[in-house]
Amino acid sequence: MENVFSACKLKIGHSIYVLPSEVPELLIKGAILVDIRTELETEIKAFGVENVIYLPYYDLDKEWESLPVNNPLIFADAVGLHSKEAAEKMYQKGYADMASLSGGITDWDKDGMPMKAGKYQPLNGPCPCMIRPHERK
Predict the structure, then answer these.
(1) What is the C-alpha R_g of the chain?
(2) Contact 42, 54 (CB under 8 A)
(3) Which residues contact 135 (CB under 8 A, 6 or more apart)?
(4) Sequence-ordered strand ranges (E) for the chain
(5) Domain boundaries along the sequence of the chain
(6) Which CATH class is domain 10-130?
(7) pLDDT (tens digit per residue) in 86-116
């Protein structure tokens, strides 16, 4: 099977970084987005696509075997830092058909890609210590 990431533009060593605009075609080709953000982060805003697995980064070391081995994986987080580390961990475990989402959900949202609202509203305001998440009705 051809590597679905072969046409991706950004490669550094064995690491492949996909741009948000490249993801829809990769999902059509069978890739799965692996969202490694915390549950609270995914409840604020989420990727608006069907092929998503939620596996928080802090659970990756003990749950990595639950990831499919027959599908290309795209690791994604908030801004692209932990997804790079997750892809590197999986590379060390023998996975080869994977990539990291460049810029994470921040660039995904900024680029106008499909989004899904979670049950909490994003936090904002003058002092983060005084703000509480509010559930959407």
Answers:
(1) 15
(2) yes
(3) 119, 120
(4) 10-12, 15-18, 32-35, 45-47, 52-54, 73-76, 98-101, 115-117
(5) 10-130
(6) alpha beta
(7) 999 999 998 989 999 999 999 999 999 999 8
Please check whether residue 74 is in contact with residue 114, taking contact to mean a CB–CB distance below 8 angstroms.
no
Residue 7 has a CB neighbour count (10 Å cut-off) of 12
Residue 4 structure tokens: 């679905």
CA 57, 119, 25: angle at the middle one, nearest 5? Answer: 60
**Does position 128 have pLDDT exceeding 60, yes or no?**
no
Q: What is the token pair recorded at 36? A: 């490694």
- Over the stretch 62-92, which tens digit does the pLDDT of each residue have? 999 999 988 999 999 999 889 999 999 999 9
pLDDT at residue number 4: 80
Instruction: Count the neighbouring beta carbons within 10 Å of the beta carbon of residue 54.
Output: 15
Question: Contact 74/34 with Cβ under 8 angstroms?
Answer: yes
pTM value? 0.84
25 within 8 A of 102, measured Cβ to Cβ: no
Plot region of 22 (φ>0 → left; ψ -120 to 50 → alpha; else → beta) = alpha
Apex CA 89: angle with CA 113 and CA 12, to 5°? 65
